[in-house]
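so i finally got all the pieces together for this one. its two components total, 961 residues if u count the protein bits. some of the lines might not be protein, just check the labels. i wanna see the whole assembly predicted at once instead of chain by chain like last time, that was a mess tbh
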Amino acid sequence: MLDAIGVDSLAELFAQIPEPLRQGERLGLSPGMSEEEVYEQLRVLAERNADAEEQVCFIGAGMYDHYVPAIVDAITSRSEFLTPYTPYQPEISQGGLQVMFEFQTAMSELTALPVSNAALYEGPSSVASAGYLAIGATKRRRFVVSRGLHPHSRETLKTYAVGFDAEVVEVGIEGGLTNAAELAEAVDGETAAVFLQNPNFLGAVEDVEALGATAKEHGALLVVACDPMTLGVLKPPGECGADIALGEGQPLGNRLDFGGPSFGFFCATEEQIRRMPGRIAGETEDVDGRRGFVLALQTREQHIRREKATNNICTAQALNALAAMVHLAWLGRQGFRELGELLVQRTAYARERLTAVSGVELLHEAPVAREFALRLEAPVETVLDRCAERGIAAGYPLGRDYPEFEDGLLIAITERRTKAQIDELAEALEAATTASRGSFCTDDVQKEPRKEVAR
Amino acid sequence: MALTETPMQAERAQTVFEKSKPGRRAAALPEAGVPEKPLDELIPEKLLRSEPPRLPEIAEPEIVRHYNRLSRRNFDLDSGFYPLGSCTMKHNPRLNERVAALPGHARLHPAQDPRRAQGALELMWLLQESLSEICGLPHVSLQPSAGSHGELAGLLLTRAYHADRGEQRTKVLAPDTSHGTNPASVTMAGYEVVKVATNERGGVEMDDLRAKLAENDGEVACLMLTNPNTLGVFDENIAEIAALIHEAGGTLYYDGANLNAVMGHSRPGDMGFDIVHVNLHKSFSQPHGGGGPGAGPIAVSDRIEPFLPRPQVVRREDSNGHGPSYGLDFERPKSIGRLRGFQGNFGVFVRSYAYILSLGADGLAEASEIAVLNANYLKARLAQGRAGKHLPIAFDRHCMHEFVLSGRPMKRELGLATLDLAKRLLDFGFHPPTVYFPLLVDEALMVEPTETETKESLDAFADAVEQILAEAEANPDLAKNAPYTTPVRRLDEVRATRHPVVRQQL
């Protein structure tokens, strides 16, 4: 090969790197390893995590321990879906493009909005992308945001807003729900968008339509972040006046994966189609009149429009969107609805069961779908540790993000959480509260929690 | 060419929604197992959905067949050569999929208490350390979700760095050869792009750079550069470029899309870059998934470190005889804040860390060597015969891991556009190179073979190009009407944009 190139050594090819910049020494990394050695190292690391296989997981806060059907793994692990690049050559990418088109249809159905893209990175950055769209649509630079919006979404929006030169105004929560009077006060003629979440971060089901009316009055866009798993049961954002509906897609067919990769979905009204971020597949025909799919409206995108693009996104989450589509097809129209109802019923039971425990009460009484917030008499972190010792990840401590809810615990229900597990959580909370009342000794709480046998 | 419709072509595309029949289903859900109440007693009726979304009604065997059928309508890296410039389509080791799927990784909740996620945090910390070493910069954030997300992060970091010094700068320089994400990120970060010209060797035109710096004195926040750049050549003036930018008070940003050329051979930090993003789905073997997922960690210098996104994975040294522990540091008062939810695309980190462990220090350096060897070999092959005549190299010098050809003579002499050549390559079972990029090369074809291809596949590709050009000399219409054998033939992309149909009507 060197002969064909016309050089004597590989070094000649690297000679274009000026000498002082050429690395003299080898990288300070370990030598290469065999496949079994690498497997073993990573297996040992994985063992040191308390995953949802060995702890009963009641943590939600945007990502949920749903059952991912085997069919999802079987399809997403096929080389033909796992290893292609972005479908820039549509003639040899019809499979992936059609998946995008189907995914868009499914998300459009879920949200009741006519236009969907083929997914963004994840939930919170999708919220920020909605902000960018809203600035383009309204030429205004002020965002009004409910504190019921996921704390990560609010923070991400603020990070991006520095670049957008936009202001972010927060509206408080009252009784678990966005404070309507405060919201009405905050929205004005300079507001580009109003951001709500439904169910909100505390699990409460908001009256999106009523809250959103304020946005309409002032010509601001209404952006609703939602949990896709609740959309079989809750009124979809498109029927509540939302201009944009988006959210974290992980509950649909995606693993927890310690936070990613998952995907963000992003749907909008027809009016916004040319301002949408990310890829969109569209239907067309080939020269012989066959039905086919291509990347549509590419003139919005960075590789064509460069600095005038509607967003900078390029590689996103195609494989994760496929997982969602397969999961949704597997659930089907009836199954999706039933799953939503199952979550509501078990959540209602859990809420009742857990508040029957002495020292545990509701943080708010608003209606909920699949997640709810409690107030604990005993210190939350101590309770979490005690539950962990019993093999239960009891929930998400609200004090991490809401100083006003230092005693708050957010509990999520999925179809994997059975009545027996909920009852066990109740017992664990009871025991933890009693222990905390009865004793000031720290006993073994501070120790590294031991792993429980998988249940 | 006689047009006989292939079986796949004869089969009209049908979506999963069109295969739906009322009453069919796959999932059998568990019973609620708790006392049930009417839904509207739990949630007010006005907040409930009246009709379920019209998802498909279809049984599991048909779902499997449907998506298997669709999979056969995709070309993929496991089926053939993918010389897509700037995309680094290298082999995706299956070991990485296996370790990413371990329950301790795949079923770990991102809000798990860090004390009970020590393995995951240690893995992230080890990956940070590895990337820091490879990039030659001391600090790493794994948070950005892809390259363009890393770019946005880098620009917001630059903004925070200047703001901290009481400066307000408005311009970002980028060469005319830059990736489209660069200028798009610049706009999203609230800056204005100033283009810098390319010299006759394919590098930054130094006089133009000096002129742009002088014209925008005190306004330049950053220069974004890819090195080797999108023409596949290493900019020999990089040290001087860095000095000029730093003198002007700007930061130097490295678009890591082309890092695969220099791993273990030259480090962006040593070149003078302040901020680097790394595409784990390019150089570090994360499968591309048909358009993601990826990850775009950033490595930065000391002066940028205080502004890194929150949270940051940290290692805390032993205090009580238990060995070091790992945590998430949120107490970063100067941080630009979060760029996304939770801690980043952890599943991608697992795969890329497995890749780095597998190859090790020497393996990574060798990967870059073979990538450069393969590119130069293919370039030499394509400099011969008809390709050499009709498809000259844009900048004739040794390349790094990729090179750019110009289809201009081919268009003039044979009437064949670069697009026609690309489409004809599909009939030969190859994914075409990146086409019409970079913009400054007329009818560009950007070829990146990667290190995981054999000499035989490179030869086969060169032979196919030769054959297509030979055909075209006799009958240019053959390529102009290609492809013939793909599941569909050339598609009307204009219509899809003018009259967008973006969902199945039900």
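Chain B has two domains: 95-355, 361-493.
Chain B touches chain A through 198 residues (CB under 8 Å).
anyway lmk what u think
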